[in-house]
Description:
The complex is a heterodimer of chains A (213) and B (400).
Chain A: H1 2-11, H2 23-31, H3 35-57, H4 60-76, H5 87-108, H6 128-131, H7 139-158, H8 161-172, H9 177-184, H10 188-211
Helix pairs in contact in A: 2-3, 3-4, 3-8, 4-5, 5-9, 7-10, 8-10, 9-10
Chain B: H1 3-14, H2 20-32, H3 34-51, H4 60-75, H5 84-92, H6 95-117, H7 122-127, H8 131-136, H9 166-172, H10 175-186, H11 191-196, H12 207-216, H13 218-225, E1 233-235, E2 248-250, H14 257-270, H15 277-297, H16 299-307, H17 312-321, H18 325-338, H19 343-360, H20 363-374, H21 380-399
Antiparallel strand pairs in B: 1-2
Helix pairs in contact in B: 1-3, 12-14, 12-15, 14-15, 15-16, 16-17, 16-18, 17-18, 18-19, 19-20, 19-21, 20-21
Amino acid sequence: MFLSLLSKRRASRPVLSLEGQSDEDLYRRFAGGEERAFRVLLDRHGDKVLGYLTRFFGDRELATDLTQDVFMRVIRSAGRFRGDSSFTTFLYRIVRNLCVDVMRSRAAHPDSRAASLERTAGPDDRPLAETIPGREPDGEDRALSGELSRALAKGLERLPPEQREVFLMREVEGLRFAEIASILDVNENTVKSRMHYAVVSLRKALAAFREGP
Amino acid sequence: MTSQEAENLVLDYVYGELSADRKAEFESFMARDEGLRAEVESLMDVRRAAASLEPVRLPREVRKTLIRAAERKVAKPSFLDGDLLTVFERFFLSPAFTGALVVVVALGVGVQLILETGIDDRITRIEKGERDSVHRMPLGRADDDRESFAPRPLQPSAEKAPKADVSTTAEALPKKVRRRKRLAARKPRPKAAATASAGTSQKKVMAQKARTTADKAAKLKETVGAGSGGYGRIAAKSAPTGPGRGKSITIDKNIIGSMASAPRENQAREGGDAVSAGTGARYIEADMTTAGLAKEESPDRDKERLADGIDGLNGAGSLRAQGDDAGSLAAYMAAISKGDLKGSRLADALYRAADLALRLGRIEVARTFIKRLAGLPDGESRAKKLQEKLKGKLKPDKAR
């Protein structure tokens, strides 16, 4: 009887299109055994997390590794997600914890990998700041946009980490200030304050770029 | 809206987090404030610059790795994954739970059975304080005492032995044994035996055993005759196997030698039962009680037993009091030859033995004891006395 109830329960799970599902529903479905739900989540957030980490550390390779770690943790934590917060908050808490770990490790070992955006990497030995991809406009715009991106990357590099993370979460990931406050476990006004300082610093950096050498 | 309020709302406006009303209010204020408009424009520039950054693509290999990990996770979920019902479902259907349930049920049934029926383990019962009931169990004859190989508590000495409730004890005996006891009770009891058994009412319980042991008492004379310390030594070698094989048990003077043969026979009869030497010893010790009971049923057994010197000086004295000089002498000889007596006790024994020997006309024996007595520090005077008696004894012979 117990077994038949369980089988009925399994059979009663609706088979819906996963694309229209919320992140939270998808994650619960994944925890319930639907592997496809994780694919959808990865499609939605994989690139964003990689972009965030790439811009935060300025190291594509490190960011890729960390992104993999983030989603491994997401996989392992399936089933423990209670839905108290949104999936995005849950995801970026993992991201932030990893970032903090790396920052601490970097502080302890200054010569370690991903030391700075100035560090060279890859076969072309270009500064990492230059490897940050930007939009690819045509002609003159392309050159201008590329330079703007690099200027912005340099400006980001100079930001304190707490301002940098707020800026990236808001600007690149599109998280609302309230969500950022929740992820960082700080007051929303604190988030806005950090954002304000970040934007002012970046504005200066961009102004210097426009004025030229 | 004040300038300060507008300043605080700039970021919300730039990032579109103002409600429609607040947004309209902010825009109307901004239209009047040139500085605020410039501020908003510069922030928009930053936003535009950030938007120029191209989104990064997750490498295909990383994606594949993650999807494989997700597939593995789905195939073998963690125990606590899923909602509460899923966890319960997983728990109750798990082989570990089933196995544990079976073990717990089996243990419960086992414990219940033990509580209901108990364990027929005499050692456990002894530990539980059921010594009395073990005492009351018939030590049995050769044909019913398989149980008697189990360890039994030592019988307390005669003077310390508590007086047993005979009626209760008798009830505890099997019917067969009670019948034998009744029959034994019908036989006339000699006065001496009755005296000897006074204060040992508990021993009556063991009367049945005495019948068996009495038959074996004759063997003791041989062992006593063998001389010092040879008697009472039981070769557990008769047990063909088991831990007792090859071991021997030395019975001290307080252990009745005739009883020593009982376990030996039992061991032999059991033919390889793992009866250890220690168990045998305990068995013999328990049988001491039975030996005492022999008095009650068969007063002659006393003489034979005491003549064997097993009870030492006390037994010899007892026999002497009964007027059995020969038996008393034999008991003294046995006690002396065993070599355990020292000092004044040895002197007393030698004196009394020599005296008895003289009385019985065993001159050579008497001489031997007198000679030995003379060699003792406090035996010289008594040896002289005996010498005189000996001389007196010899004179009539010479005169004749």
